[in-house]
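B., you asked whether I could sanity-check this one before it goes into the benchmark set. Here's the sequence:
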Amino acid sequence: MSASVQVSQMKQQHHQRKEHHQRKEHHQRKEHHQRKEQHQEQHYESSCHLSAKSSVSKQSFSTYKTTSHRVKTMVKTEKGQEVVKLSPLPKRAKRTYLAMDLDKEVIGYVIPVFRANHEEVRGLMEAREEDVTEEGINYVAMRNLFVREAKEALELRVEKKTRTTHIRESAERLELNKTLEEWTEFRKKMNPDSLTHAPEFIGRPRGQTVWEGQTITLHCTVAGWPKPRVAWYKNNVPINAEAHSEKYTIESNYNMHSLAIKNCDFYDTAQYRVSALNVKGEMSSVATIVVKRFQDSEEGGTLESKSYGFSLEHGVTFETTILDKFEVAFGREGETLSLGCTVIVYPTVKKYQPEAVWYRDSVPLKESKWVHSQWSGQRATLTLVHLNKEDEGMYTLRVNTTSGYDTYSAYVFVRDAEVEVQGVPASPLDVRCHDANKDYVVITWKQPAVEGSSPILGYYIDRCEVGTHHWAQCNDSPVKYARFPVTGLVEGRSYIFRVRALNKAGVSRPSRVSEMVVAMDPFDRARLLGPSAPWTGMIKFTEEDHTVGVIPGEPSDVAVTEATKSYVVLAWKPPIQRGHEGVMYYIEKCISGTDTWQRVNTGMPVKSPRFALFDLAEGKSYSFRVRCCNSAGVGEASEATGDITVGDMLELPSAPGTPVATRNTSTSVVVSWAASKDVKHLVGYYIEYSVVGTDVWIPCNNKPVKQTRFVCHGLTSETSCVFRVKAVNAAGYSLSSSDSESVIVRAAISVPAKPSGVTLLEAHRDTMVLGWNEPANTGGAAIRGYFVDYRTVKGKVVSQWHELNLQALTTTFYKVDNLKENIVYQFQVRAMNMAGVSKGSLPSAALECKEWTITVPGAPVGLHFLEVRDSSVVVLWEAPAFDGRAPVNGYYLDVKEAEAGEEGWKAVHEKANKSKYIKVSGLEAATSYVFRVRAQNLAGVGKHSAVLGPVLAETRPGTKEIYVDVDEDGVISMVFECSEMSEGSEFVWSKNYQAITDTSRVTIINEKGRTRAIFNDPSLEDLGIFSCVVTNTSGISSSYTLTEEDLKHLLDISHEHKFPVIPFKNEMAMELQEKGRVRFWTQVEKFSKDCQVEYVFNDVIITQGEKYTTNFDKTTGIIEMFMDSLEMTDEGTFTFNLVDGKAKGTTSYVLIGEEFRALQKKSQFERAEWIRKQGPHFTEYLGFTVTPECDVLLKCTVGNIKAETEIIWSKDSIEIRDGDEAAKKLEQKDGVLTFNIGKWVIKQDAQADTEETKPPAEDASLLLPPRPKISKKDAGIYEVFLKDERGQDMSRFDLTNEGYQAVMNELFRVTANSSSQIQVLSTEHGIILYSMVTYYHEDQRVGWLHKDAKISASERVKSGVTGEQLWLKINEPTEKDKGKYTIDVFDGKDGVKRVFDLSGQAWEEAFEEFQRLKAAAIAERNRARVIGGLPDVVAIQEGKSLNLTGNVWGEPVPEVSWTKNERELVSDDRYQLKFEHGKFASIAIAAVSRADSGKYALVVKNKYGTEAGEFTVSVYNPEDDEKEEEKKD
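And here's what the prediction gave me:
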């Protein structure tokens, strides 16, 4: 087969060369032929160019160029699409992938014998992938063609034609076609029925995009004769309008035809084809309809839902109700947010589950790591994990059933996370990857709403290879453009990207990472999807030139796709001629005005047909070209681009129009604005708001919106705000728009809801009295009135509605006159406020107009409530329209809980209430109640009124009550404040719940959010209940009951304000100062700068002089008068008289009798003290203190001493001199004199020892035992004298009797509190419990208790003191000794106790240690040991006898052995070894020699141990010693 293929390739190559010359001869004739066929051209979107006589007209196609010398032209088809036409192929031209016959008709696909990346194949693959599910008219035509050709080519055909044959056949075919066309034209002229013609569309249906729930109509106009028959198709399926009349309506009037699609839903998205057919032919036209699933609205709420239809599958009509709807939600980056609704589907069908789909901004949400949806029972939940600003938008829940669908929407706002550094910008958002290639990708993002404390300087782009955690920064310097080409990627690897913003304050947090992108050739990406061309039934082989070693051709269509100040991006098409191997590219640049070309990427050629150039000079012009290269070399350069000036091609958007803010709800405002003009590539708009009076701008949205209307949520109610808008595109932010006019955040006013409960209250022959309830919602404005409509009823026939009153009614009842007796009527009521008139209420029951014969009064009307609180409510009503036979003389009010039955009604009061209001108390908070009223006359009690309520007993947050105020002028008024007033709200005052009309008693003054009712002349006439109601609110009201007692109290306060008294913070007081100076003072609470003071003594005005000094400090309000001394004439009353305008004040101090004399004496003493302190003196007199170390110090503090001041200590009137031992106990430091009574002083005789025997200073205390801290020897009277030329002072302390005992008690207290917790010590004899103290005195009592019983001393249990250790010894302890032990140390009063529980683990550990030590002591006592008798060294003359005896001890008796030089000796003739009486071990050597010298040891051993008594034996010879000495001499 390969041989035949090669023959075919050679033949076709020869045929191609000849065809090149033949085309020149027939060029003019071919152009004429193509113009005639142009009106029949069809271009199919499937990218498969085929031809058939029945469906596809003739169309010629040109091949692609392969060298730079070919000419390229563009030809437009009927559909406006461009087809590339090139000049004839050169010698080495590539083959096209479309097989053609001689007339250039496409007859099939050609499968090449090589694999290459050609644009044709990529286009076919991409188009096939997009349209694989769509069976349109084009595919039908191709399918018919494939069926025809499949029959003709059931087996493989290999055609072999010479070039000459091919040229001849082409010429013959052209000639034949010309003849056929001439013959056809002649036959048309000769045909008598020349008026008939095929259908033709004068007007074609146009594609449209609509929202769900709308109705759309397609129109077309068709001409033709005979009159064409028109049919409509949806995705090539005929539409049966009669069978689906609820969905489709088809109309045909003359030549106008239309198709109406009602109540569109998402599934109506399709291609709709209209076909016109007559005997002359058929003509079709296609229009595409796109139905969006919901409207992209900024306001939360349900959209128009589809009407429910009958489900044939289940035999029912499903009705969907969405409850517990999620509201507008606010989240913050990093948080988790859940949205949910309860969905009720009725009726319930077993195993049927509706479909719940979530959308964000019209896009269905898919499950991901960020988004989780759940359907559990009747609850649909959407969870957004780790919120990001990309998650902001309109969220919609759509519930689909087989009968229809229902939707609900609300907006979700995502706020920026808290920044670590103040002033940095917020993180960018919506990072995306575009135009990915082998080593190149374009990254785009959206700018954040918040730039921080300064404008954004640029952005950093980071990349991370998938599978790693390393982020690498892609750009060294920040880029301003929100679009950046990233180069240098590794082919075949996957990457993710993120972006950070930069301003002067720092770098923002990174954005959310982008979706993963693979660096690879788009053709390779398409090839991975697999082949997509349809089978044609024919395979033809074409010849491919051997391309090994062929230099690639030049690229084409080099163009600049992006240009900014930072970079320029080039793009081009790969060459057709590239060979088996891939190609790479070199980019060259040239500065305009020069001929020098400079290669940009000298180091490494790029693989992608995209390249970003950086480091270009801003403002300069460049041109660029590209060269291809492979292993064979570098090809020719492409055509150069035009001059490109480096700079931003995209300009910043212009500022949007001034926004208009309108009220929406109590926390939201609707903002609309005019779009920015002439803006390119708009990303969206950011809206900001600022509270009036501040300069802080807060973003309303963190994700840009494209529409020019936005609802700003999350605002604070009743604040005044202004808004501004800025546009953003890839180039950056526009200037902010002008600020809007300020708007107060409060609910917008709307028409009220419908009234309810229209009932008949009374009837006469031609009169009927109607009553109704106020609407539940007033629309944010006060109800201004009502309109009543009526109609007659006769059987089941009703007439039209007619108005009864032209002027609005102000009450909730109405008397209808001029009716006809015995006629049945129905009535409805409409409410009106400033926004308009509501819809009509539900019609009343059919009411017959006839005379009532009752004698009791009718039902009260106009029930309403005020002053709703947690435990009370005020109910008001109007008198019945019909009094009965006697006037109404009282009313009864009933109440019950709203959920209780009819048996739950209870009377509020027993006696009839004369007034038409009552305050109901004793209600239960958070409980709903209903009320009704009955009227009474002499004949009896009438029927009850319409039920009022339910009313929830709950105090509104922020509710304020009326309070009474008396101003400085004594004016009495009642004040009420309201912070929730809206436009049109007013304060309405009433007395006893009747509007105040008599202005002579009360004057009303209204301010912003505040009203004041001023009493003109308060008197008993003003007693009663005053109430105030705020209109156009949800019932804000309050009342104040003015009683006679309250009035009297208010009049007293008013009198005080009219005739004021200067208030004193303190009445006049007296204090004694140093030098015996007397100060009289007081402090005024409120006064003016004009306040004057008059000083009086015994009714005589005092003037400032030598005796009296006065002062009035007006900054503090303190009034003072000073006297240096008190004399006998100063006994009396001192008074301050104050005058401040019309206010006066008086305060006095009486100083007489004993008080005067005591003060005088104290004054004299203080003066003497002052005189004393002029010289050396005691600031603290002599006393004692005991330090934590238990030192007893006599201590005093002196002042005003000098170096010359004498300080003399004495004991019992005997002066302590410098040489005395006691003088060494005295210390003076920082004005404090101390005498350490217990300090031990080294005696002089002890210090007289020699230097050799004198211990170190720190060991001096070892010479003599320490003396006690204090003893009775220290008792006595101690005195300290201070003396110098300025004066003298003396202090004394009696350290005898009571003084001595007080010192000892303090010493005992310090000692006792220094005692430590009881510790445990085990010995060989038993267990010792002890506590350590800082010091112990022999007079201090210490007691021990066992189990709270005093321990008696015995031989086995003893207590005592050793040094500072207080101990209790338990010898040979037993189990009886376990338990709680307490030591009681006397502290001068009661005692300090320390407790230890000697049981459990503590006992076990102590007892075990005792046994161990006892055993060790026994072993030590009975251990074998040498206790004496042996010398350390024995020197013996040679020849002498050696006898040594060692004393041995051990129980049991130890074993005894002797060793010499660590070798055991045996008793023999030379060594006589003996052990006698178990105590004496001896060794005897009869005549020693030098060999007997050595180290000997007596070794004793028993079961308790071993011990060796070592000694050394040295044997000498006197003669030898003399000889050695002679030698030395």
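One thing to flag: The longest strand covers residues 281-292. Otherwise nothing jumped out at me.
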